[in-house]
Design brief:
Distance between the termini: 45 Å
Oligomer: single chain
Helix content: 55-70%
Shape: elongated
Number of domains: 1
Largest sheet: none
Strand content: under 5%
Length: 113
Amino acid sequence: MSGAGFDESIWVGVVSVLLLTVVSFMVILVRMMVIGQGSGMSPDRFVLYGIPDGRLQTGIYLAALAGPASVFGLVCLLAVVPLYRSRGAGPMLAAVLGAVLGLAVLHASPWTW
C-alpha cells in the first residue's frame, strides 16, 4: 500500500494500539475470573493480625502482581515488544517498561479489586 501514502510506522502503531487494547481487556477479564467477588485477599480478612493498613494494601497489591493473572498479562504485554525491533533498542526498552507499568496500572484499577 505504498502508493496510498501509508508508511509502515502507521501500521505498527495501529496494530500496537489494537493489540494492547485487547490484551488490557483480557488481563482485566482473566483477573476478574480468577478472583471473582469472593476474594481471599480482601483486607477485611486480615483484621485479626493487626497489620497496618498501608503495609497490608502494599502486600496485597504485590501478591496480586505475583498471581496467575499477572503472569498471563505480563507475557501477553511482552509479546508485543518484538513489534518494535525494527525501531531500535530505545523503543524496545520503552515497550518493556510500558508493559510493566501497564500491568501495574491494570492491577491498581478499581475493577480488578
